[in-house]
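Hi all, long-time lurker, first post. I run a small reading group and we've been trying to get comfortable going from sequence to structure in the token notation. Rather than ask abstract questions, I figured I'd post a concrete chain and ask someone more experienced to write out its structure so we can walk through it together at our next meeting. Sequence below, copied exactly:
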Amino acid sequence: MKSLPVLMLSLLALSAAAGSAGPQDFRSGIELLPQAGHPIAELDLPDAIYQGVTRADLGDLRVFNAESTPVPAALCTPPPAPAGAVQELPLKVYPLQAAKAAAGAGTRLEVDSGGAVTVDVKPTGEAAAAQTQVSAYVIDARSAERPLDALRFRWHTADGASELQVRVEGSEDLDRWTTLVPQATLVQAGSAGQTLQRERIPLPSGRHAYLRVTRNDAGPAPALDAVIAELQGGKALEQARWFAPAVLPRDPEHGYVFDAARLAPVHTAQIALPAGNMTLQLALQSRARADGTWRTVWSGAVYSVGAGAAEHHNDDLRFAADSDRYWRVQVQQGADSLGAGVPALRLGYIPARLRFLVQGSGNFLLAYGSARAEIPPAPGCEALLQGLPPAELQAMIGTAQAGAVRELGGVAVLSPLPRPTPLRQILLWAVLVLAAASVIWMALSLMRASRR
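-- Answer (accepted) --
Happy to help. Here is the structure in token form:
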């Protein structure tokens, strides 16, 4: 029974080998050349990674050194939505005066009970002067360098209303106006020293030179004490990596469908209309699988007005990061104006940043794309060398250059292996069988000895 320990060790070694993933367990790889003199290297994940991974959480991604040994790595994932501190910008407000009807023609006639007539002639200037009131407010937004996210109002009303409904419109020339927010509620109520306020109105994507605010419900226009604009974060939008998804054959019932061919965390989109002087009400939707359920990630107006240098169009569409592969542009209003034209779609995302320890010599290999490598997703940046002071950590970090893509295990590793044999169970049964055989052998040996 001396072979029992040997067999057990062999089975344990086989089990350990089956649980590890090597470069050949991944479809493709990219050579990484870290900067000399730094124990940690970083780089933005190339677009090829998002085209080759099979998991949106980047779980099928691993870094190996020249000896094919995995090294500790972490992912600095992008924020779920474009980042950047909200910039506040006070805007100039101009009241629009609406003239009331003139009070008579300047002459007043009175007849008393005795039939006497009294004529009261007003001065000409007094008769012509019409009383005025504020009908709406125009907000000058030309000073905003980026599209507006929202407007915040400081207001009060002459009728003492604590709640009112308003409408927000946009214009480029103070002549033609487009409704941006058909109706929004402003609230300003107080009780027992506490105040309940709703002063913010979100705006759809787009840039407008002027905005007009009009009260929808009955009552005088509110007195606007101040209007503060919240500007969209620009830094994250400037860093976005853009690509054009492939157009799939159109199904008249399902709009215009696109294949992103990658699992990138898309957070912004551009929709170009096929002709000028056009506006459409659209919904941008996505789904993970070709047979999945569509989810709406953005809806609103998309337009292109004017021509040449005077052309105006809506700005980028922004939404929470979405790693779905399939996208759809669904026309909700204005489909007849498209004709045979097709809206063009571009998607943008911020790539995750890979950070890894420079362990071993030579270049490193970033392997990705596998249905066989059972490894958890890489941890966040803060988990690598946790506890090290930020200043010291930053001094250790260098850059890494990415080389060309090369094939490793090929497309075969994108198919999962057959259900693995439960090695631990086999090992347990082997131990039990061998133990039973050992007991039987010992019993037989004792029986033989007793007969002698």
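A couple of things your group might point at:
The first strand starts at residue 28 and ends at 34.
The CA atoms of residues 439 and 445 lie 10 Å apart.
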